[in-house]
Amino acid sequence: MPYVHVSLSSKLDAAQSDDLKTMLGQTIEILPGKSESVLMLRLDQDCAMYFRGQGGNCAHIAVHLFRASPEDKKQEFASEAVAGICRITGLDKDQVFMSI
Fold this sequence. Notes:
By secondary structure, this protein is of the alpha/beta class. Helix content is 33%, strand content 25%. The protein contains 2 helices and 6 strands, in the order E-H-E-E-E-E-H-E. The relative contact order is 0.26.
């Protein structure tokens, strides 16, 4: 079971939250043996977050995997997930940090 925890400094509307859930559910399938049907997702919004010593718009995505995935698939997943977060939230790529 993959677990994805997304923390955002901003607040999303209902449509954006649904888009984020759907995007991550589709993107998790890049990882072998993972699917939306076993994905657990936590979305924290409007968090007090600081980046470069200042409060501001940013996001952190923490991905926990039960079994290892190939490095190339993790890189592909990370690239697609960050691009999707940026598209949905309006953040720039350098405002998003992901750990797997």
